[in-house]
Amino acid sequence: MNINKIDLNLLIYLDVLLRECNVTRSANQLNITQPAMSNGLKRLRDLLSDPLLVRTSEGMKPTEKALRLQPIVRKVLLELEEALQPEADFNESISTRVFRIMASDYAASTVIPRLLNRLREFAPGITLDIMTPSDVTFHDVEAGKIDMAINRFEELPQSFHQKSVWLDTFVCMMSSNNPVKDNFDIDAYLQAQHIWVSKTGFGVGVGMDPNDVQKLGWVDEALQALDHKRSIRVFTRSYHTAMHLALEQDLIATLPKKVAMVNKKNPDLVILEPPFDIPQIELKMIWSPLLHHDASHIWFRRQVIDVANELKAQTQ
């Protein structure tokens, strides 16, 4: 096949079709009509002598040839997007750009308030659009629809750029009236009632099972290694909710130190070191290679790291 016959738009169509596996959704994403998308798929099938997408009982599925082409097409388009990015300087003082950030509750409770204060001082026209992990997908980040995701990630697509924001330890937060605070050892911890809080990655959350330690996370895995198990009374995905519930006399919230320090001046709460070792967690920011060389994005990434370094210095 002569490569001169390939229309660049067809590569864009193919990239979206293989991600969505749906003509209607692909058309909506590219802001074209469904007949135009169907015509594009027909041209691709004729050009490549392959159906590319076939209908199954589980919906449209890519063929073997389509699966081989997908990473190649994605790489070509990403590199082209990077090469065509404008190199104009970015003036934050007059910019009215909107930065869309997927921030976990943990990140939103710690990084975002300081970031907003910095923008208020140096870039008053910039707007933040904060989304939750349930609002976006990895595809949204990869396509540049989301400027940045700040969260804890176990696995990431290789195409993403990433940077560590910080490492964090755990602390225990409880009411100043909680009787266990005066002799806080492992026995006291295990006899108490606990608040579980966590939400990582992307996608809609699912209900929790107190007996499924593998899904409970760092704290409960650390306890299991000691042949211990805590009594969880409340499950929440919000750190602010967890800290509010910690005001109850009989509840303990075990949570990352940097988010706990948000309430360090509250006289009704005390913050103590946990009576057992819990592995550190890492907060990362990730972004699309499409945005990596964009001047405004480079500036914005620097602001995130600067405010993170300020917070780290204050919570050592």
Poorly predicted regions = none
Report, as a whole number of angstroms, the end-to-end distance.
61 Å
Q: Spell out the helices and strands N to C.
A: HHHEEHEHEHEEEHEHHEHEHEEH
* Integer average pLDDT: 88
CATH topology of the largest domain: D-Maltodextrin-Binding Protein, domain 2
Instruction: Give the percentage of residues in beta strands.
Output: 15-25%
Shape: elongated
Helix content class: 40-55%
Top-tier CATH class of the largest domain: Alpha Beta
Total of DSSP H or I helical runs spanning 4+ residues = 12
What class would the helix/strand composition place it in?
alpha/beta
How many strand units?
Answer: 12
Total of domains: 3
Radius of gyration: 24 Å
CATH architecture classification of the largest domain: 3-Layer(aba) Sandwich
The CATH superfamily of the largest domain turns out to be: Periplasmic binding protein-like II
Largest sheet: 5 strands, mixed
Strand order of the largest sheet: 4-3-5-12-6
Which terms would index this structure?
single chain, 316 residues, alpha/beta, Arc Repressor Mutant, subunit A, D-Maltodextrin-Binding Protein, domain 2, five-stranded mixed beta sheet, 41% helix, elongated, LysR-type_TF, transcription, DNA binding, DNA-binding transcription factor activity, LysR_subst-bd
Q: Quick summary of this structure?
A:
With 316 residues, the chain is α/β, with parallel strands linked by helices. Helix content is 41%, strand content 21%. The protein folds into 3 domains: 3-84, Arc Repressor Mutant, subunit A (Orthogonal Bundle); 98-167 and 282-314, 3-Layer(aba) Sandwich (D-Maltodextrin-Binding Protein, domain 2), CATH 3.40.190.10; 170-279, D-Maltodextrin-Binding Protein, domain 2.
